[in-house]
Amino acid sequence: MMHSIQRIALLLFILALLAAPAAAQDGTTITWSIEGINDVVSLDPAKASDAQGFTVIGLLHAGLVRLNADLLVEPDLAESWSISDDGLTYTFTLREGAAFSDGSPVTAEDVVWSLNHALDPNTGGWTGPYLLSNIAGSDEVVSGEADTLSGVQAVDARTVTITIKQPSAYFLSQLTFGPAKVVSKAAAEASADNLDQASVTSGAFAVQEWNRGQGLVLVPNANYWQPAAQVSRLNIVFNQDSETAYQRFRTGELDIMGGAQNPIPAARVPEVKDSPDFRTTNAFNLRYVAFNNQLAPFDDVRVRQAFAHAVDKVTLADVVLGGTVTAADRILPPGMPGSELPIEPLAFDPDRGKALLAEAGIDPAAFTLTLTYGVEGDNERVVTVLQSMWQENLGITVTLEPLELSTFSARLNDTYQDPANGLQAYYSVWGTIYPDPQYFLSQVLRTGVGNNNPHFSNAEFDALVDEADVIIGDFARRAQLYNQAEQIAVNEVGWLPLFNGQVNVLVRECVQGVAVTGLFSAYVIPDYSALRGCQ
Amino acid sequence: MLRLVLRRLASLPFVIVSVTFVTFIVGYLAPGDPILALMGNQRDPALYERLRDIYGLNRPWHEQYLSYLGGLLRGDFGLSYRFAQRPVLDLIRDGIGVSFALGLAALTLSVAVGVPAGIFAALRQNSAAERGLMALMLGLFAIPSFVLIPILQWANYQVYRAVGSALPAAGWGRPEHWVMPVLVLSAASLGYIARLTRANVLEVMRQDYVRTARAKGLRETRVRAAHILRNAALPIVTVIGPSVAFLVTGAFVVETLFAIPGVGFLSIQAVGQRDYPVIQGTTVLLALAVVAMNLVTDLLYMALDPRIRVDV
Fold first, then answer.
1. How high is the ipTM of this complex?
2. Measured between CB atoms, which of B50, B176, B269 is closest to A38?
3. Do β-strands A326-327 and A496-507 pair in parallel, antiparallel, or remain unpaired?
4. A214, B95: Cβ pair inside 8 Å?
5. pTM of the complete model
6. Dihedral sign (CA B108, B110, B116, B119)
7. Quick check: is B174 in a domain?
């Protein structure tokens, strides 16, 4: 009987020896892990909804414009553009010879079709209606009243004009993102599957193989204006679990792993932080607490300030979370354009907090706060610390209400719709899709906007961001205005900022041409012709 | 025997209706909303309403359920919310072969190693080898897969550091991808089958008919094969059926941690994303698998012991 066991052991040993790395190809290969999912939803830019999907789609599809390594807008399929004096009409000229992966030319008609598709309610995506809502006629298309976008017109084969409703300093930034990518009208009309499977692409790579539930094999698109000539294959590998990806990375199977939402496991950071493969940067996200401004006593700014003064963020970030995050005193994450201007924080000052509560006529013993949060990652630890800080520094009893993530999301929605029956206070996170201060200020704290769940409302703040949102070209002036608005939001505790995350990823040292940013899709490839794998 | 098969088939519609109804109602009543899960933390209330309309979620629950059952009769498991309205059947078909092959390999390994190990232990009762082997089997049975996996991964990494090549840490497609997942997946049932075999063989060895067989001068190999093993086999067959259920539930963890594109992996993701059609689809499938395995077990009983008549 021992024999069969020995035989199996021998067989397993032989199998282990067979597990040599795959044979090298011509050119270089890059194996890139995408964590947190087991498959991408669709390769149609208009249907994707998560950071992972947009990372893959960014490799496959190009837009009129893209972001460079400094996160500034630069030409992509459009070689140039002009903006009318009223700031409402953008005229793009497509690159001469721009072509899809099947060799057909990229025309103005394709751009028009793609933007219409992104807003078409039958597409079923939400990022298009969310990010492209400034295009004239978008509401009519989204609601089904019109079939085509009045604001997007093909002037000739290489010229397309986009008319927007409000002058916008960040409209071009919005065009760099997923739903504004250009797909082939001809291929999409031939079959809907062509869109879902990205049979024809406009970006640097094309799909060679899609192994459902495992990954994709991409090959360079030679027709892209900046071909990835030094790469012969880019393997995308899905790993639901970040620890699994980490095991694959350290046994030599992967070249790139980690993202803004799914960084390398925190427990692994100490063992890799001195490795040349380790890359880290500030994430453009903020963990914060928001108080329902329409529920007493949080309609009183002094009460919100009292809670803000009672939180020791440095202890929270450095001791409780072991320095894997950075304490935040302001709403813009460090590194975001506009964050270079200083903000005067509400300092940790429990005595001031108590005084403010007394001034507002709140008896701490007679008041209980319910703090709601979604169950995920370190959230439990953070809210427990907040609970004890408020108990200790203000004498207020805090009840914690954990909710499963999608329930939490639904409660936020309720709080937006019906603040009187909404959450009292919640702990959450906000991350940016495009690198503009607008996304952290006007998008979330302006009176009445769709993401302003706490119903913060300040007329001066609104006036400042409204002015800043429409200034084109003069970023210094915009940044000044946003800075003043941000100072108001900090003073009046529109949000109580706690800390900023860190993007911790592993990129093998020999991989060239990949920039790691704080954006939610983390990676930017500034020049595809310089992209190069290890072997 | 035919009657048994027919009766079981006749009960299938009831199984399916109850399974789908319970999954549907639990999903319907559970807090959380698939559209919000889809949209992440950004939202626009008007857009949210339109998406609910597109996915048919604003219809009353009984309409949603009946249209689902109607689809099921036509072999249509509905459309996934998360996977951009891909048919659930497509998603499941991709994964079912993988999960089945993996489960079968693990079951084969646990029987092929567990049964001989148990017999070996029974025949060498009270030896040091028996004690060591049974302690190992108890360990395999007790250790959860999420503990065993990091241990294997650590060992594998040590091999990689020493020789520069090792088993793939995860993934699917090449033969070597099978080694670690099958080892982990079979561990618990292997330990259980080995211990059960040992206990059964020991019990049967003490029976009068074994002593009689020896007394009438049969060779020891014949006594073991025809009298001991055949009689000891029955309870072992009993556990193989439920083991399959064990393998499937174990596969949730194993498929996730080894990035294997099976149905377990799919279910985990579907639960997190409130993708009800996919959850219902995989649940119906699992229920069918359990019914089928129970039927196979009953048929095996009757083949092994003609005295047994199963009436259901």
1. 0.75
2. B269
3. antiparallel
4. no
5. 0.81
6. negative
7. yes
